[in-house]
Every structure is written in C-alpha cells, then in structure tokens.
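Task: sequence design from structure.
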C-alpha cells in the first residue's frame, strides 16, 4: 500500500466476499492499546498469507501523528504513517484500549473523519468505537465494544445500536469486543474471502477454534470460569455478572439455577475456591475498581451501579478489599 492514491478501495460488500485480489488494511492504533489485541488482528492474517503462499492480506500500522504508539505492556509500537497522510484502504480498523473515550476529541477525530472518506469498510476493535462514534461514523450502526464499556458507550451514543456480542459485521461497519473476538472476526474474514478450510488451518496454527460473533461477551467469559466445571456454576456466574447493579442473594441465585444453597456453595468452593456470595462481592468490587480508575463517574454513581446501598458502604468495602478508599485510588497516577 502506498500513500498516494494508486488504487480505489473495494466496496464494503466486497470485503467479506470471495477474494478477487489482495485486501488492503490499515490499523489505527491508539496509545494504551493492548499488544494481545493487536496480535489477534494481525497474526491470523499473517498466518493466512503463509498458508496461501501469497500476500493476500496487506496491513499497515497507523498512528495519530505517525510516531510510535505506547502500548499497555510498555512497548512502543512503530507506525508506518500518520492518519492524516493515509490513502484510503479497503478496511480501516481503529484499535483502542484504556482511555479511548478521553482521546476521542479534537484533531484525532477530525483526521479520522477525513481518513474514512473513500474507505471500503470501517471497524472498531476493543474500545475503538469511541473514536468512530465521536467522528459521527457509527450513527445508526449496529456495533459492539468491550464489555466493560457497553453501558457507558450506549448511554453516550444513543444513535448507535450497541449489542453485547463478541463481534458484529453489519453493513459498512464491523466491530469486536476485545482480543479473542478480534481473532474470531479475522477468522470470519479469512473464511469469507478464501473459504472455511483456510480459516480452520489458521485457527489450527494457533491451537484455537472459532466462536460465533453473536455469542454474548459475558456468556463467553462465564463459560471459561471454571473450565470443565458444572454448567450450573457457569450459569450462576453469568447471572452475577449481569446483575452487578442489583445483586441477588446466593439463595436466589441457587434457586434460579436449580440448586439448593448448600449444593451451590459446595460446587463454588470446589471449582472456584470461594463461596458464591464471596465471588459475587469480588465481581462487584472489581467492576467498581475499573470504574474508579478508568472513568470520571461520581463515586455515588459507581456505588449504585455496583450494587452498594450507600456511598459509605461502598467506601468501606472498597477500602477493605484494596487497602485505600476509592477517591485516593483515583488520584494515583497509573503505573
């Protein structure tokens, strides 16, 4: 891919269609993105090229200013081109992680809006939707984002249809909720262009398998904890994760999954290491911690959204778990 407009990007309908030539992809990577998520986008494409013996997928790393991008792991990722200098690719992906909402302003959003003109298809990976939505590029679209952002993103952008799916392909937009869903999305892209057999070969390269895009992120998380455990424990965990703001008692959870309280407690201790009440409390406190560090929501709102009856009860529980009150944690610089 060159920075001069030497070819016209293919249409959105042609991105997920049998290939008639190489697919040109640009990945705009924001600071504090995850290396794992980036690898989940690029490595399946690299493996597909290897199996095909050709550069069927071509990609470039883009940054806001053309300089290196600091990732969450401490690595500075080199970029090939600045967003403002990017010639329209077939597929432009915006890959973001922490702090994407705060970055979705000013010159970066204006550059993204200009860069999107003429692009065949646009995509949001992890929290990249904050940038696309701020640029007005998701209006009326059906998309997903990382499960930690689902509620805030939907509230901030009522004109966007936000769903909790692992990944979504709808019209000219695609989106994936994180590293695992991004890999699944790339496998779907490979299958659409070169067949299911190649996608299976690529998945085999990484000793993984494809998961359906329509699967809920929260269901997938619960299904992985604990591995090989009783499905009723998985169902109980899923209930807890979808009821953070209105937690039910362990007895109510047990009844909902068809167990006695004693049996649920026994299964949790065997498979998770703690009882269901302790596990549910930890889920709520971890969610609160993310909101404290990654958002500017008032503490009273965080307490309410994480199922605490009062701010004082929230503060006591938070300090007991993390060793300092939530306000002090928020004021600490990120490491």
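Answer:
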């Amino acid at each position: 891919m060159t920075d001069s407009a030497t070819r016209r990007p293919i249409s959105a309908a042609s991105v997920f269609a049998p290939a008639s030539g190489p697919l040109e992809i640009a990945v705009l990577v924001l600071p504090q993105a995850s290396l794992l998520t980036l690898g989940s986008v690029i490595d399946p494409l690299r493996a597909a090229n290897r199996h095909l013996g050709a550069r069927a997928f071509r990609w470039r790393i883009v940054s806001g200013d053309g300089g290196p991008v600091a990732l969450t792991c401490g690595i500075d990722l080199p970029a090939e081109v600045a967003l403002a200098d990017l010639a329209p690719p077939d597929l432009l992906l915006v890959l973001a992680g922490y702090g994407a909402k705060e970055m979705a302003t000013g010159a970066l959003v204006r550059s993204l809006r200009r860069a999107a003109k003429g692009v065949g298809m646009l995509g949001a990976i992890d929290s990249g939707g904050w940038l696309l939505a701020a640029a007005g590029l998701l209006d009326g679209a059906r998309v997903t984002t990382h499960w930690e952002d689902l509620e805030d993103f939907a509230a901030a952008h009522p004109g966007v249809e936000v769903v909790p799916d692992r990944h979504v392909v709808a019209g000219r937009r695609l989106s994936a909720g994180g590293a695992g869903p991004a890999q699944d999305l790339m496998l779907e892209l490979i299958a659409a262009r070169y067949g299911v057999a190649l996608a299976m070969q690529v998945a085999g390269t990484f000793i993984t398998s494809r998961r359906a895009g329509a699967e809920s992120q929260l269901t997938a998380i619960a299904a992985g904890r604990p591995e090989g455990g009783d499905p009723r424990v998985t169902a109980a965990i899923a209930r807890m994760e979808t009821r953070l703001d209105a937690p039910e008692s362990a007895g109510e959870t047990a009844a909902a999954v068809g167990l006695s309280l004693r049996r649920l407690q026994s299964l949790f201790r065997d498979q998770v290491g703690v009882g269901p009440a302790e596990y549910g409390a930890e889920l709520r406190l971890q969610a609160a911690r993310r909101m404290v560090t990654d958002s500017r929501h008032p503490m009273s709102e965080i307490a309410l959204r994480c199922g605490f009856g009062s701010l004082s009860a929230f503060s006591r529980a938070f300090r007991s778990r993390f060793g300092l009150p939530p306000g002090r944690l928020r004021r600490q610089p990120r490491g």
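Residues 1-5 have pLDDT under 50 and may be disordered.
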